[in-house]
Amino acid sequence: MKKIIAIASVLLAVVACKKENIAENAPADGMVKVTFTADIPDCEFGKASLDGKVVVWEKGEKVAVYDGVNPDANSFEVVSVDGNKASISGEIAQTATELTAVYPFSAAKGSAEGNVTVNIPNGQIVPEGKFIDPNVLVSVAKANVGENLAFKNVVSLVKFTVAEEGATSVLFVGNSGEKFFGNATVDPVTAVATGAGTTRGKVTAAAGTSFTKDAVYYAAVYPCEFPAGLNVTTAMSDCKYYKNSTKSNSFA
Q: Can you name the residues that pair with 240 across neighbouring β-strands?
Protein backbone atom coordinates (compact mmCIF):
# COMPACT_ATOMS: atom_id res chain seq x y z
CA MET A 1 0.00 0.00 0.00
CA LYS A 2 2.86 2.34 0.80
CA LYS A 3 4.24 1.81 -2.71
CA ILE A 4 0.87 2.62 -4.28
CA ILE A 5 0.58 5.81 -2.22
CA ALA A 6 4.10 6.84 -3.26
CA ILE A 7 3.33 6.31 -6.96
CA ALA A 8 0.08 8.24 -6.64
CA SER A 9 1.95 11.09 -5.01
CA VAL A 10 4.40 11.21 -7.89
CA LEU A 11 1.53 11.25 -10.41
CA LEU A 12 -0.14 14.09 -8.54
CA ALA A 13 3.11 16.00 -8.53
CA VAL A 14 3.52 15.55 -12.30
CA VAL A 15 -0.05 16.69 -12.95
CA ALA A 16 0.47 19.71 -10.72
CA CYS A 17 3.63 20.65 -12.62
CA LYS A 18 1.80 20.44 -15.93
CA LYS A 19 -0.95 22.72 -14.64
CA GLU A 20 1.66 25.27 -13.53
CA ASN A 21 3.35 25.20 -16.95
CA ILE A 22 0.04 25.76 -18.72
CA ALA A 23 -0.69 28.73 -16.44
CA GLU A 24 2.76 30.18 -17.06
CA ASN A 25 2.25 30.07 -20.85
CA ALA A 26 -1.22 31.59 -20.79
CA PRO A 27 -1.62 35.20 -21.96
CA ALA A 28 -1.95 37.92 -19.34
CA ASP A 29 -5.45 39.14 -18.53
CA GLY A 30 -6.91 41.10 -21.43
CA MET A 31 -4.11 40.01 -23.75
CA VAL A 32 -3.95 37.56 -26.64
CA LYS A 33 -0.95 35.73 -28.12
CA VAL A 34 -0.27 36.44 -31.78
CA THR A 35 2.43 35.75 -34.35
CA PHE A 36 3.08 38.12 -37.23
CA THR A 37 5.15 37.98 -40.37
CA ALA A 38 7.60 40.87 -40.59
CA ASP A 39 8.63 41.86 -44.11
CA ILE A 40 12.07 43.41 -44.38
CA PRO A 41 12.51 45.08 -47.79
CA ASP A 42 15.80 44.91 -49.65
CA CYS A 43 18.19 47.67 -48.71
CA GLU A 44 21.85 48.52 -49.02
CA PHE A 45 23.14 47.18 -45.73
CA GLY A 46 23.09 44.11 -43.55
CA LYS A 47 22.47 43.90 -39.83
CA ALA A 48 25.81 43.63 -38.10
CA SER A 49 28.49 42.49 -40.53
CA LEU A 50 27.25 44.45 -43.57
CA ASP A 51 27.99 41.54 -45.86
CA GLY A 52 24.57 41.31 -47.48
CA LYS A 53 21.94 43.30 -49.33
CA VAL A 54 19.16 42.94 -46.78
CA VAL A 55 18.73 43.66 -43.09
CA VAL A 56 19.31 40.25 -41.54
CA TRP A 57 17.22 39.62 -38.46
CA GLU A 58 18.26 36.92 -36.02
CA LYS A 59 16.19 34.44 -34.04
CA GLY A 60 15.76 35.54 -30.44
CA GLU A 61 15.90 39.28 -31.12
CA LYS A 62 13.29 41.52 -29.51
CA VAL A 63 10.85 43.83 -31.32
CA ALA A 64 8.72 46.50 -29.65
CA VAL A 65 5.02 46.45 -30.60
CA TYR A 66 2.60 49.19 -29.49
CA ASP A 67 -1.02 48.03 -29.60
CA GLY A 68 -2.72 51.39 -29.01
CA VAL A 69 -4.33 50.12 -25.80
CA ASN A 70 -1.41 49.59 -23.44
CA PRO A 71 0.85 52.65 -23.05
CA ASP A 72 4.05 50.60 -22.97
CA ALA A 73 5.57 48.58 -25.78
CA ASN A 74 4.84 44.85 -25.84
CA SER A 75 7.98 42.75 -26.18
CA PHE A 76 7.83 40.45 -29.22
CA GLU A 77 10.50 37.87 -30.08
CA VAL A 78 11.79 36.79 -33.46
CA VAL A 79 10.92 33.07 -33.54
CA SER A 80 12.04 32.25 -37.09
CA VAL A 81 13.80 33.89 -40.05
CA ASP A 82 13.47 33.04 -43.72
CA GLY A 83 15.42 35.37 -46.01
CA ASN A 84 13.89 38.83 -45.78
CA LYS A 85 10.91 37.62 -43.75
CA ALA A 86 10.74 36.91 -40.06
CA SER A 87 8.05 35.63 -37.71
CA ILE A 88 7.67 37.56 -34.47
CA SER A 89 5.56 36.39 -31.57
CA GLY A 90 4.17 38.07 -28.47
CA GLU A 91 1.05 39.41 -26.77
CA ILE A 92 -1.21 42.36 -27.59
CA ALA A 93 -4.41 43.68 -26.04
CA GLN A 94 -7.49 41.71 -27.09
CA THR A 95 -9.17 44.94 -28.20
CA ALA A 96 -6.23 46.16 -30.31
CA THR A 97 -6.99 46.97 -33.94
CA GLU A 98 -3.81 48.68 -35.13
CA LEU A 99 -0.15 48.03 -34.33
CA THR A 100 3.04 50.05 -34.53
CA ALA A 101 6.37 48.25 -34.29
CA VAL A 102 9.96 49.32 -33.68
CA TYR A 103 13.05 47.21 -34.27
CA PRO A 104 15.16 46.63 -32.25
CA PHE A 105 13.26 46.79 -28.95
CA SER A 106 15.99 48.89 -27.33
CA ALA A 107 15.34 51.71 -29.84
CA ALA A 108 11.67 52.15 -28.84
CA LYS A 109 11.13 55.08 -26.47
CA GLY A 110 7.38 55.70 -26.68
CA SER A 111 4.29 56.10 -28.84
CA ALA A 112 1.84 59.01 -29.08
CA GLU A 113 -0.59 60.51 -31.60
CA GLY A 114 0.16 57.86 -34.21
CA ASN A 115 3.93 58.41 -34.11
CA VAL A 116 6.72 56.65 -32.26
CA THR A 117 9.79 57.97 -30.48
CA VAL A 118 12.94 56.07 -31.35
CA ASN A 119 16.57 56.42 -30.38
CA ILE A 120 19.78 56.28 -32.37
CA PRO A 121 22.40 56.36 -29.61
CA ASN A 122 24.99 59.11 -29.88
CA GLY A 123 27.45 56.62 -28.41
CA GLN A 124 27.68 53.60 -30.71
CA ILE A 125 29.99 50.71 -29.83
CA VAL A 126 31.30 48.47 -32.61
CA PRO A 127 31.99 44.95 -31.28
CA GLU A 128 35.30 43.38 -32.14
CA GLY A 129 35.15 41.76 -35.57
CA LYS A 130 32.07 43.80 -36.62
CA PHE A 131 31.67 46.97 -38.68
CA ILE A 132 28.68 48.60 -36.98
CA ASP A 133 26.90 48.60 -33.65
CA PRO A 134 24.19 45.93 -34.21
CA ASN A 135 21.70 47.87 -32.08
CA VAL A 136 21.51 51.00 -34.24
CA LEU A 137 19.81 49.81 -37.44
CA VAL A 138 16.39 51.14 -36.49
CA SER A 139 13.28 50.36 -38.52
CA VAL A 140 9.54 50.90 -38.00
CA ALA A 141 6.25 49.45 -39.25
CA LYS A 142 2.52 50.05 -38.93
CA ALA A 143 -0.36 47.69 -39.79
CA ASN A 144 -3.82 46.56 -38.80
CA VAL A 145 -4.06 43.47 -36.63
CA GLY A 146 -3.83 40.42 -38.90
CA GLU A 147 -1.72 42.13 -41.55
CA ASN A 148 2.00 41.67 -42.12
CA LEU A 149 4.34 44.27 -40.65
CA ALA A 150 6.35 45.87 -43.47
CA PHE A 151 9.38 47.50 -41.87
CA LYS A 152 11.10 50.60 -43.25
CA ASN A 153 14.55 51.82 -42.29
CA VAL A 154 14.78 55.01 -40.25
CA VAL A 155 18.53 55.48 -40.46
CA SER A 156 21.18 56.51 -42.94
CA LEU A 157 24.67 55.03 -42.80
CA VAL A 158 27.89 57.03 -42.65
CA LYS A 159 30.79 55.05 -44.05
CA PHE A 160 34.21 55.84 -42.58
CA THR A 161 37.77 54.53 -42.29
CA VAL A 162 40.68 55.44 -40.04
CA ALA A 163 44.12 56.16 -41.52
CA GLU A 164 46.25 54.79 -38.67
CA GLU A 165 46.22 51.91 -36.25
CA GLY A 166 45.14 52.62 -32.68
CA ALA A 167 42.08 54.83 -33.22
CA THR A 168 39.56 54.24 -30.43
CA SER A 169 36.69 56.55 -31.39
CA VAL A 170 35.36 58.79 -34.15
CA LEU A 171 33.18 61.82 -33.35
CA PHE A 172 30.82 63.44 -35.87
CA VAL A 173 29.56 67.03 -35.47
CA GLY A 174 27.55 69.04 -37.99
CA ASN A 175 29.01 72.51 -38.57
CA SER A 176 25.55 74.07 -38.24
CA GLY A 177 24.54 72.09 -35.16
CA GLU A 178 22.46 69.57 -37.06
CA LYS A 179 20.62 67.07 -34.88
CA PHE A 180 21.15 63.59 -36.25
CA PHE A 181 21.54 61.36 -33.18
CA GLY A 182 19.44 60.75 -30.06
CA ASN A 183 15.67 60.55 -29.72
CA ALA A 184 13.42 61.50 -32.64
CA THR A 185 9.74 61.42 -33.48
CA VAL A 186 9.08 59.08 -36.41
CA ASP A 187 6.05 58.60 -38.63
CA PRO A 188 5.80 54.77 -38.76
CA VAL A 189 4.19 54.89 -42.21
CA THR A 190 6.90 56.95 -43.95
CA ALA A 191 9.78 56.24 -41.49
CA VAL A 192 10.64 59.96 -41.63
CA ALA A 193 12.23 61.28 -38.42
CA THR A 194 11.90 64.79 -37.04
CA GLY A 195 13.30 66.60 -34.04
CA ALA A 196 16.33 64.48 -33.21
CA GLY A 197 17.63 65.66 -29.84
CA THR A 198 21.41 65.32 -30.00
CA THR A 199 23.92 67.21 -32.14
CA ARG A 200 27.03 65.11 -31.49
CA GLY A 201 27.60 61.45 -32.24
CA LYS A 202 30.48 59.14 -31.44
CA VAL A 203 31.37 55.69 -32.70
CA THR A 204 33.63 53.76 -30.34
CA ALA A 205 35.50 50.52 -30.85
CA ALA A 206 34.61 47.71 -28.49
CA ALA A 207 36.13 47.98 -25.03
CA GLY A 208 39.82 47.12 -25.04
CA THR A 209 40.15 47.24 -28.84
CA SER A 210 40.69 49.81 -31.58
CA PHE A 211 39.58 50.29 -35.15
CA THR A 212 41.59 48.52 -37.85
CA LYS A 213 43.50 50.79 -40.20
CA ASP A 214 41.77 51.25 -43.60
CA ALA A 215 38.88 48.93 -42.66
CA VAL A 216 35.37 50.12 -43.51
CA TYR A 217 33.04 50.98 -40.62
CA TYR A 218 29.59 52.53 -40.41
CA ALA A 219 27.75 54.90 -38.10
CA ALA A 220 23.95 55.09 -38.09
CA VAL A 221 22.41 58.58 -38.18
CA TYR A 222 19.08 60.19 -39.01
CA PRO A 223 18.95 61.38 -42.64
CA CYS A 224 20.10 64.99 -42.55
CA GLU A 225 21.35 67.88 -44.68
CA PHE A 226 24.68 69.53 -43.85
CA PRO A 227 24.78 72.85 -45.73
CA ALA A 228 27.93 73.95 -43.90
CA GLY A 229 29.67 70.58 -43.87
CA LEU A 230 30.78 68.17 -41.17
CA ASN A 231 33.57 67.96 -38.61
CA VAL A 232 35.13 64.59 -37.76
CA THR A 233 37.43 63.97 -34.80
CA THR A 234 39.41 60.73 -34.55
CA ALA A 235 40.77 59.92 -31.09
CA MET A 236 43.99 57.96 -30.68
CA SER A 237 45.50 56.74 -27.43
CA ASP A 238 47.74 59.82 -27.19
CA CYS A 239 46.30 62.44 -29.56
CA LYS A 240 43.37 63.50 -31.73
CA TYR A 241 43.01 64.13 -35.45
CA TYR A 242 40.55 66.72 -36.72
CA LYS A 243 39.08 66.85 -40.20
CA ASN A 244 36.65 69.60 -41.10
CA SER A 245 34.79 69.88 -44.39
CA THR A 246 32.73 72.97 -45.19
CA LYS A 247 31.36 71.35 -48.34
CA SER A 248 27.59 70.90 -48.37
CA ASN A 249 26.64 67.27 -47.85
CA SER A 250 23.65 65.11 -47.03
CA PHE A 251 22.95 61.68 -45.58
CA ALA A 252 20.02 60.30 -47.55
A: 235
